Task: structure prediction
Amino acid sequence: MERFRRRGGAGARVRLGLSCSYFVPRVKIVLAMSKITKEQVEKVAKLARLNLTPDELNKFADQLSSIFEHVDILSEVDTDGTQPTSQVTGLTNVMRDDEVDSDFCSKDELLAVTPLPVERGQIKVKKVL
Amino acid sequence: MDLNQLTIWEAHEGLKAKKFSSEDLTNACIKRARERNPEVNAFVEITEDFALEQARLVDKDGAAGPLSGIPIGIKDLFSVKGYETTAGSKILKGYKPPFDATAVAKLREAGAVFLGRTNMDEFACGSSTEHSCYGNTKNPCDLERVPGGSSGGSAAAVADMMCIGAIGTDTGGSIRQPVSLCGSTGLKPTYGRVSRFGVIAMASSWDTVGPFGKDVKDLALMLQVMAGNDKRDSTTPERPVPDYMAALDKNVKGLKIGIPKEYFGEGVEDETRDMVMNAVRSLEKQGAILQEVSLPMTKYALAVYYVSMPAELSANLARYDGIRFGIKPSEDGSDLEEYYRNVRGEGFGDEIKRRIMIGTYVLSAGYYDAYYKKAQEVRTKIIDDFNRVFEEVDVLCGPVSPYPAFKFGENLADPLKMYMADVLTIPASTAGLPAASVPCGMSSGGLPIGFQVIGRQFDEENVLRVGDSVCDMNKF
Result:
C-alpha cells in the first residue's frame, strides 16, 4: 500500500512510483475537516465508480461525517519523527522469477467465469472511448 | 452423545478405532445442519454430495492425520475449486473459482471433509453478520441476537454442533468477536502465519486466516495443517511451524500474564469484566504471574483501523468490475465506465459502499497525508506500545467484546456504534499479533462471554497454552 517514501529533512523528498520525485514542504497537518458535504460524497462516488441513489448520497454524507469526527482523534497523537507502518512483520520485498504460475488453473478455466462474451481468448467489454 | 458434538480430537480417536466411519460422522453433522440451519442460517450452502464423497474416500483409505474425515465449515470467501464462493455479496453471485485457496488445498490434502460454506458479512465487513446477501445468521444461544461477525456463520455452526470445526478470517476481530458471542473458540494467527492465497481480500495489511473449534486443542490441530510459507502469498515468512499440540502439554506455571488496564475501562460491561477477571485469577492459581500493564495508545486503534482498512478495502474491491467474474448489471450502460458504476452500484451492499467511500476519500488528493499517512504513523505508535509491554510479559489477557451478543438491528442504524464492537480486538490486529478467544463463562442472561489471549508475533504456542487452561476450567 505504501507508495510514498519519506526522505527526512525539513521537508520530505517524496517518491511517486518509480519514475518521478518531487519536493513537498513539511506542514503541520490539522484534521479539522470532518464535515462531509453531499457534493463531496458525489465526487468520491464518481472516483470509486459507484452509482448511489439520492437517499444513499444524503445518508452517507451524515454517516461519513460522524465516522470522520471520531477519526479526528488521531490528531491528538504527536507523530513527529514516527515512521509510518505498512507491513507489520518486518518482511521486505519478496522477489520471484517473472514466470506465469499456471499450476493451479488454466487460462481457459479463468475465462470461463466471466459474465461477458469471450472472443479469441479475450473478454469483450463495452467501448472505452 | 451424538457424533456431531465431538471435538476434532475425539472424532479422530473414534475414526482411528473404527468406532464409526467418517460417513457416519458427516451424516450426523448434515442431519443437525438440516434441522437447525433453516432457523440459524449459519450455512449458505450445504455441499452434501461433495462432503459424503470425501468422507467415503477417507473411510476407504483410513484416517491418516487428525483432520482426516473431519467435517468442517468454510467461510464463504475461501476459493474452493468448482464451488460457488461469493464473500456474502450479490456482486459475486454464481462465481465458481477454478482453483483452491492454499488453506483449502492444505485441508483437502489432510483429508478434511467440506460440509459447506458459512455465512458472513459481505466481504468480511461487519460485526454482526447482518450485512450478508443471504440474510442474517442468528446466534444459536439466543435467536433474537446476532452471532457477531464477520465470520458469524463459522462461529454459529461450530457452537451449534452443525460441524466439527470451521475456518474463517480475522481482519479486525472477525474470528474472535463472533466466537466470543456464540461460545465457541477461535484463533487469529500472526499476520502471515497462514497463507491468504485464494482468500477473497478485504484489507491486505490486516487480513489473517484462522480456525474455529469447540476447544483449543482443535484450534492447534487445524492451525498445524494450515500454517507455513506459501510461494503464492509473499507475506508468509519462511519460518518453521512449531508443534502446536506439544505446546499444550505444558502448563501456565511461571508464565507472565499482562493485564492491560485499558481493556477493562469504560464501555466494558461489569459482568464481562468480572467473568474475565475470574478466569485471570484462576490462571494465577495455576501458577501464572500477573502484572498490570498499560497500553495507552489503545483508544486510537479504532480510528487507525477505520482509515487504513477502508483504504485497503477500496483498493482491493476495485477489481469487482463485472468483467472477469461475478454478475452483469441489469443495464449495461453506454460505455465501460457506466457499466462499472452500474454493476458496483447494484452488486455491493450498504456497508461495502460506505467503506469504499471512506477508503476512496482518505486516499484522494489532499487527504492522503491527513488521514492515511497519519493513521499509519499512529499504527507504529500502537505497535511500540505492544513491544514495550512484551519485554515484561509473555501474553496479554482481557475481554474480546465489551458486551455479550446484542439484538438484531440494535447497532445497524449507527455505523460508528457497530464499529465499537471491535474496540478490544482491533489493537492486536494493528500489530499483527496472534490472539485467541475462548469462552470463560455465561452472563446472567445466559449469553457466552469470551476471554482474549494476545501473544507476541509468531508465539501462537503461548496463546494456545493460556487459552487451553482457561477453556479447561470453564467447561460448560
Q: What stands out?
A: Residues 368-389 of chain B form the longest helix (22 residues). Chain B has a mean pLDDT of 96. Chain B touches chain A through 84 residues (CB under 8 Å). The radius of gyration of chain B is 21 Å.
